[in-house]
Write a structure and sequence with these properties.
TIM Barrel, single chain, eight-stranded parallel beta barrel, globular
């Protein structure tokens, strides 16, 4: 598939946009004030294949904690800011490689300007994030409800405001828990801007529902060549987000590496505990990113020889 060429942005030691590989993001669910716990989780996420990590910064103590966190990790650190512009400024001073803000809830134009000035000083990219749940009342009234068009207009208004302040080191994210609305919004905004897009289905749910909604939504958006970074948002262990994101990218041919496990759904011909075996194999190979192979786990003489011959390694019972 042909990906849309977007503006290249440097985030810490990684680049996004400009034809660079699509990077996987996640977000810690630890208290950022607890640097040790946050670092421990980030290191686990790094091992799983996370490329960029975001942490919540709701307090000045959390902002100060970024110093200790950044010293001990190896991937770009993004500070998630809401409501208090001073937290954004402190986060950049404490080493954040990128900040995520919704200018609509930061406060006055002067406060947004203060954040932009600090971003200029430190060369820190700003991710302008708009979710369907935060859409402004005038846009809801204009479009007769929360719509893809309204989400896009909200995001581009905020981007234009920051551009008027003389800054274009920007990333955009527009999210909704409504998959089809999210897809439509990305199709619209991709035609209107060349800024890199962070793509995800927000508040998608628990492991089962969240994975399905994310696979459908991200699959469509990415297949249309849209997206420079992704996150699979799940209610649970963030490591599961990385596993799912890697598989989505691999399935679409957008990322090489890793072991793909295929297995049959079992039937009355199965003579072994194939379900247990398939799960065991998948758990064993999940972090082998240096490999690029397919393993087939099949349960009978019907699927075994036929399906396994297309794999690099076959296991049949």
């Amino acid at each position: 598939m042909e990906r849309k060429m977007t503006k290249e942005i440097q985030i810490g030691n990684r680049k996004i946009g400009g034809g660079n590989p699509i990077l996987i993001q996640s977000m810690c669910n630890t208290k950022t004030e607890d640097a040790a716990a946050t670092v421990a989780q980030i290191l686990k996420l790094e091992q799983a294949g996370c490329d960029i990590i975001r942490v919540a910064v709701p307090t000045m103590e959390a902002a100060e904690s970024l110093k200790a966190i950044k010293r001990q990790i190896h991937i770009p650190l993004v500070a998630d800011i809401h409501f208090d512009y001073r937290l954004a400024i402190a986060a950049m001073e404490c080493g954040a490689d990128k900040i995520r803000i919704n200018p609509g809830n930061i406060g006055s134009r002067e406060r947004v300007q203060a954040v932009v000035d600090k971003a200029k000083e430190y060369g820190v990219p700003i991710r302008v994030g708009v979710n369907s749940g935060s859409l402004e009342k005038p846009l809801i009234e204009k479009y007769g409800g929360v719509t893809a068009e309204g989400i896009v207009e909200s995001a581009l208004e905020k981007v234009a405001m920051i551009e008027q302040m003389g800054y274009d080191n920007l990333v955009i994210s527009i999210k909704s828990s409504d998959v089809l609305m999210c897809v439509k919004a990305h199709e619209i905004i991709s035609k209107k801007t060349d800024y890199p897009l962070h793509v995800g289905i927000t508040e998608s749910g628990t492991l089962t529902s969240g994975n399905i909604k994310s696979a459908v939504g991200l699959g469509i958006i990415l297949h249309e060549g849209i997206g420079d970074t992704i996150r699979v948002s799940l209610t649970g262990d963030p490591v599961e987000e990385i596993k799912s994101a890697k598989l989505i990218l691999k399935t679409l041919g957008l990322r090489k590496g890793g072991v793909e496990v295929v297995s049959c759904p079992t039937c009355g011909r199965t003579k072994i505990d194939l379900i247990g075996l398939a799960n065991q194999v998948e758990n064993m190979v999940t972090e082998f990113d240096q490999l690029d192979v397919k393993v087939a786990v099949m349960g009978c003489v019907v699927n075994g020889p036929g399906e396994a011959k297309e794999a690099d390694l076959g296991i049949a019972g």
